[in-house]
Amino acid sequence: MNRETVVAEALGLLDEVGLDAVSTRRLAKRLGVEQPSLYWHFRTKRELLDAMAAAAMEPHATAPLPVGGDDWRAWFLDNTRGFRRVLLARRDGARLHAGSTPVGDLDRIRRKMDFLTASGVPERDAQMAMLAASRFTVGSVLEEQADGAAGELPAGVPGIGHESAFEAGLALILDGLARRVGE
User: Fold this and answer.
1) How many domains does the chain have?
2) Which residues lie below 8 Å from residue 73, measured CB to CB, with a gap of 6+?
3) Is 159 in a helix, a strand, or coil?
């Protein structure tokens, strides 16, 4: 048993039972080990959850970075949509990710920021747009993943699909950023 095995099994457990039911006791049972042996790999549950969040984000963290000549608007949309897809790929993916720190992702974030600024986006606006898009995406996915538990809307309340609401909000963020850039 190694860290990667523990994290993979923990993510499998997450997908089966949801974040609230993930426990080191359940994980140890799933792995066929005693609970204290997990502490060899992770001192706290928070440490385990952070490792799970990082592993769950791996597809987004390894997506191709933008290169000079790419259209910054198209890249911004693709990047944010890719982030959403990764969060939706896991049960409670947004809750798992929320509050985690992208420690291993700082170089990639810097390169994304450099791309935006090289494309003419003022640095502060690029920072705020990336932050706004990230938080908007996490919030949208939180709502979408919680919707199954919410039940039906009351009669007369119009329903708006999650994807169309996400796309409309993302367009507003992008339009606002484009106006700041003067486009």
Assistant:
1) 2
2) 174, 178
3) coil
